[in-house]
């Protein structure tokens, strides 16, 4: 590793439908990169505690801190799991202008409700965590195991959403009235709030008002950070990999994910097709699958049909949603599940041969 | 219906709906958030908020499948099957439920203005459970209106399903009074009443999905006080040629050992490898099914893998048949 690569952290974000082995692939991806000497960290955001199991760390558990995964590689593999509550507390502590302000926010009921609910908060905290890891300047490569399917976009969009929210005229008029907003607008907003109180109860509305009032001053820091994170996710340092299985439903969702990425001006760097049926579709096998006359042949014919359907569906999806120039890596289904470190390492070796992984100082895109 | 993404929760929900409609129930299938495409096999593009009929009373299922898919099916679905009840579907999004709710409240037009002003969005951001509670509140309202005999709700994926179902508890803690609090209380009452509401969990016979299902099941019982219906294990690879039974009863294993003694042509090697793959997979799945049975004392409904790319009405009807066969008259 050269010294300049120390500050040149690359990010790979793995997106995909639920149940296709995204976490496993993220871990294998990190191992493949570590075998090339990179210092990697896998960040998992998925609420399910899968990464620890996959990496054989269930006894140590996996938490907000960094856990080292030992293995036969020249680089490093670290793993970390998002703890939104801890992250949020970190963020508030960093941004608060005084200890009193910090304590007020941390004891607010709305704040605690935000912590226990998944909608939006977790995703935003995940981007904060990603930025924190990036800022450490200690890793060559951060691999992000995003939440399944559309929730991945809650993650990608959260910095922008927060920025929009804090820039919202209503928010400014109601909660930051001292910043010179027209008084009449403020009164109208207050009336709306009273109305809302009759609907959801005035306690909730008061809590919300208090909560945002407590945020006075902090929101600017939040807003700046959100901008920075968004820029990082848009930059050439971030790459997007779509993980899918070759079944029609996940392919449909992956197509949607790829299109949604492209709508956000983010290119799909590679498509990992996990668990494809291990039968080659060619002239020979097509012939062997015809007119089965015994059980062996019937079984082969059934599996051949599955493999052929996977092929057609995959090609169709590539054509309509991704473009055929994108790298595709197919990983054959293992009859026995991948849940040992050894199995994962062997999976990583499959990625190693074909995947143009980030290499220090060489960017395939440029 | 709850289960992690990719387990075929929506397909199972639709099949359950068809099975119940066949048995004479007036069934309402509810899709939340609109990503599941529940309507597609029934020839409906997108389900509307107000609902559509998916299967009319008295429909001959076999004829209907032939009509919708353009080809008759060779398997058991061709037997005479008449839909004695009916099946309808609708999509409930939190935004529409909110709109509906505001329109129905005495606040009327003012409420609409409130919604448009963005204030609601602001509060919903701070107390996100509101949206979920409104969607569940709509389901409860349909349940109370006796609109159907059975309502099947295709819930968000597990993890998220748990949050979704916990939304009422969270909100009840944050909101002390007012109509939304009332909604949350009513939803909690519905969830806790096992005579009115049960969760049906769907999984695959694989390590991680099974582990997650066990975790979700315990948490649903403990944290949401929700009763559990039988578990559905989807996508189970059976014996070749649709023969019933487990891998141990399959004659495939003996054919493999016979074949190994014969001359290994390129073809024979491929056939044996394919058979070995299937047997290994069957065994791995059976291990998971047994583990699930040992760790979670609930009845299991096992559904076979459907080897087709786009599931059509014929496939759904075939799964429905499999459900009926296992559930019987209960």
Protein traits:
heterodimer; A: 366 residues; alpha/beta; disordered C terminus; B: 330 residues; Rossmann fold; four-stranded mixed sheet; three-stranded parallel sheet; 12 helices; 52% helix
Structure, described:
The complex is a heterodimer of chains A (366) and B (330). Chain A is α/β, with parallel strands linked by helices and 366 residues long. Helix content of chain A is 55%, strand content 13%. Chain A is built from 16 helices and 8 strands. An 8-stranded mixed sheet of chain A has the order 3-4-2-5-1-6-7-8, sandwiched between helices. The radius of gyration of chain A is 24 Å and the shape is elongated. In chain B, the strands form 3 sheets. A 4-stranded mixed sheet of chain B has the order 2-3-1-4. A 3-stranded parallel sheet of chain B has the order 6-8-9. A two-stranded parallel sheet of chain B has the order 5-7. The longest helix of chain B has 30 residues. The two termini of chain B are 18 Å apart. In chain B, α1 crosses α12 and α7 crosses α8. Chain B has one domain: Rossmann fold, CATH 3.40.50.300. Chain B is globular. Chains A and B meet through α6, α9, α10, α11 and α13 of A and α4, α5, α6, α7 and α8 of B.
What profile does the largest beta sheet of chain B have?
Answer: 4 strands, mixed
Strands side by side in the biggest sheet of chain A: 3-4-2-5-1-6-7-8
SSE series of chain B: HEEHEHHHHEHHEEHEEHHEH
What is the largest interface, and how many residues per chain?
A-B, 76 and 75 residues
Report the end-to-end length of chain A measured between terminal Cα atoms. Answer: 21 Å
